[in-house]
Amino acid sequence: MALNNPFSKAGTFLKESRGEAKKVDWPTRQKTLQNTIVVIVFSVAVAIFLSAFDLLFGSLLERFIL
Prior knowledge:
There is one protein chain. This protein is mainly alpha-helical. The chain is built from two helices and no strands. The longest helix is centred in the last third of the chain and has 36 residues, at 29-64. Keywords: Cell membrane, Membrane, Protein transport, Translocation, Transmembrane, Transmembrane helix, Transport. It is found in: Cell membrane; Membrane.
């Protein structure tokens, strides 16, 4: 009867999940900060690149089409 109990299944799931989380090789605080900075710098670079193309093509459209 315990196998059909949803609370028993949930408890088993939580125990197994906790065990798996302990096996994970979590990044250090320094590595996390480093990766965060890389993502922010890359995002800003892509935003600048896309903004430049938008400005360029917008001005070309205004000049030649409109």
